[in-house]
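Researcher: I need the complex structure. Ligand is D-malate. Inputs:
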Amino acid sequence: MKTVIDGMTIGYTDDGSGTPLVFIHAFPLSKTMWQPQVDALKDTHRVITIDLGGHGDSDIVPWNDSLDGYAKNIIRLLDHLEITQAVFVGLSMGGYTLFSIYRHHPNRVKGMVLADTRAQADSEEGQVARQSMAEVAFKDGASAIADLMLPKLLAPSTIEQRPEIVEEVREMILQTPTAGIVVDLVAMASRPDSTALLSTITCPTLVIVGEEDQATPVAESQYMVDCISGVTFVTIPHAGHLSNFEQPIAFNQAIESFLETHGL
Ligand code: MLT
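Model: Output:
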C-alpha cells in the first residue's frame, strides 16, 4: 500500500483492527522484515509497517537526512491514518528512530518495544566506519553492502544452517537503492545520544535482544534495562541482530505476552 503525503510517497501496510502496533525497520532493510509479526499479530491488533524514506515503496528524500525526519514521516502517516496513539516496535535503526518519536511526541507512544538497539550515539570511530560504508555503497552498490551486513545482521548459526533466511535478507538489502543506504548512514552517524531519555520513559516498555547479536550486543540492552523503570527484558536464544526474523516465534511470544500484561 502507498500514500502520498506532502508530495512524498510512503509505503506501508495496515492490517487487522484493535490497538495499533507500528513496526519500524532496521538498516538497510524495509517493512518486509516484519512479515512474521504481521502474520502473527494481525488477528488481535491493527498492525502497521512502514518503509522509511529511500526503502521499499517510499520515496528517497536525500535532504531529509536525519532520524528525526524519519520519525516525522511516521507521525505524518499516523495522522493520515487517524491514529493518535500506538505501541511502537523499533529494531536497531528502527529503535533509534523510536527514540526520536518518544523525544518529540511522547504522548503518541502508548508502549514501546526496543529490539536489538542501543541508546548511545555513534562514537567517533563508529562515525568513520559509517563514512567508509557509505563509500562502499557509492562505489560498489547494495550487493557489497549485503556482503558486509549479513554477518552483522544474522547469527553465525543462521548463516551456516539456514540459507533461505540469508537469501531473504540479502534480497531485501538488494532492493534498497544506494541513495537510501547512504542517507541512513548519514542519519545514524549524526543521531543524538538518547541515554538521558531512558529514565524519562513512563510508558510500558519491552527490551528484546538476540543472544548472539553482534551489532548491538546484549550488554547494550542490559544498559537500557538498567535505566528504564518497570521495563520487561527478553533475550532470544539462537538469534543474532535480526532476532524478529531469525526466531519469529520467540520474538512474537515476547510481544504478545508484553501486550497482554499491559492490556494493550
Ligand atoms: C541496523 O540494523 O539498523 C544497524 O545495524 C544499526 C547500526 O548500524 O547502528
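Model: Summary of the prediction. The longest helix spans residues 124-140.
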